[in-house]
Specification:
17% strand; single chain; sulfotransferase activity; 124 residues; 38% helix; four-stranded parallel beta sheet; Rossmann fold; Sulfotransferase_dom
């Protein structure tokens, strides 16, 4: 059994990729973001969620902020990571659509500031 973690910036296609994996026969895709690896090990994740495989070969989990746990993921031979990358202009356009469609300015700001990727300050 293998474990795959989808991570990266929010609005970069992580949900779409999870939906594609969930359509496969021998894959169990977790539908909710667990944030599990932010405070636990991959061994603990496997103990907690490994039973879901039930004959499947792959368990897929999507939490964009697991980009901060890549060191844990790549250190485990049963785990892999897919890091989604999208043009930042397209990410902002996606957030803008969310604001226009749902009038969620606060959600768009929060998503941008908590995107799962570290922001770099400009040099002074």
């Amino acid at each position: 059994m293998r474990f795959l973690f989808i991570c990266g910036c929010g609005h970069s296609g992580t949900s779409l990729l999870l939906a594609i994996f969930s359509a496969a026969n021998d894959v169990h895709a977790l539908t909710d973001e667990t944030h599990f690896l932010l405070s636990h090990s991959t061994c603990e994740f496997k103990s907690q969620y490994g039973y879901l495989a039930q004959g499947g070969n792959l368990i897929v989990e999507k939490t964009p902020k697991h980009v901060y746990a890549l060191d844990k993921i790549v250190a485990d031979p049963e785990c892999g990571a897919l890091v989604m990358v999208r043009n930042p202009v397209d990410v902002i356009a996606s957030l803008k659509r969310e604001v226009l469609m749902f009038n969620r300015v606060s959600n768009a700001i929060e998503t941008t500031t908590n995107s799962g990727l570290p922001a770099k300050r400009p040099r002074e």
